[in-house]
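so my prof wants the structure for this chain in the tokens format not the other one, which i didnt know existed until like an hour ago. anyway here's the sequence
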Amino acid sequence: MIKIFTVEEAHETILRREMALEPEVPPGLQARLDEMFGAGSTPDTAVTTILRDVRQRGDAALRHWTAVIDGVELASLAVSKAEMDTAVSRLPLSLYEALQLAARRIRQFHSYQPLPNWTTTEMGGRLGQRTTPIRRVGVYVPGGTAPLPSSLLMSVIPAQVAGVAEIVVATPPGRDGRQVHDTILAAARIAGIETIYTLGGAQAIAALAYGTESIPRVDKIVGPGNLFVTLAKKQVYGIVGIDGLYGPTETAVVADDTANPAWIAADMLAQAEHDVLATAILLTPSLDLATAVQHEVARQMEDLSRSEIIAVSLANQGGIVLTADIAEACRLASDFAAEHTCIATANPEQWVDKIRNAGGLFIGERSFEVLGDYVAGPSHVMPTGGTARFASPLNVSDFVKISSIIQLDDATSARLSPIAAQIARAEMLDGHAAAAEKRV
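here's what i got, hopefully its the right format
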């Protein structure tokens, strides 16, 4: 059963922010690391080994690590057009149409985001900014415990709206005799993606960052993944750009006694079923609501196929926090800076401005998180681990870069040159000063 905490207890437990990239390694995973990489290996050192090997041996290393880690012997690193066609034909028409609807809404939402070029002549000459799309982007799509075609759409479509010319996808190979799950291939077809590499984990990130004989390097890598994907993105940053370092998914629900306890419980269970490390937290001043949600969670969980995962998630990271009032619940939610923050109160709009930090704000019980996961429109790739304090959901601006435009007129250049020289000499950079003084 999900626990009910006081605010003080919650601060010491479920509201604490631990280092997402330094988790405690379960014994089973540690045994595998020791076997594959040597005694005492950590996830970070394992990733370093894989990145180095792919950089040195290219395709051969990709095949080796896919066989060792995923247990799959790759006949080809890329999915053929014929396999994509076959996958689409196997998919139920209603599911294909649902993915099409999601793609349309995602594209429409992101098309509203402005990316202006601008210049001004008010500072002497012409100054401004030029926005240009990144040339080549790699999208990582998780496919471990469950295929995530929605993640492909949520990552690829904003890049297309931004004008990225080349987008490739990497996703782990399936273990059912097929290279990639049908739903992911269908989503790729809907989004117009032609190149999909059957690669997962750190080896996929290495291939995209460094390039191999078969895989050209990209300029930026985006998309969520497991711990090894995240550590690999962290290590290759600087060689390529990345969108962010994503940890386990999380939600915080702010609710009062007008909320529907069955709906709140369902939303929390939907979050907890992602992963044993997922976080689902309810913040409420209502003991009646807290108790009702507690009972609903226990009742509804019995009917869910991933109940074992849910039970671990709720026992270790989940909970209900009893607050003094909704204002305190909002303060705690803002401090926690969850990936998803849901407001289920009588007048949710009045509390929106009280929550400064959130990856996504879901306002009202009809705007629930699952709709954001699939069809609302904004990308569901959102900052986790408290990074919503400074980071944003994946959006069109992640796929462009800005160049400053400096074109001063002669009079402005002459007027600013001695000032620049003065500052340069204060920094003991005589060459800089000389270059400015020659223009005077």
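also thought this was worth mentioning. The chain is about 45% helix and 15% strand.
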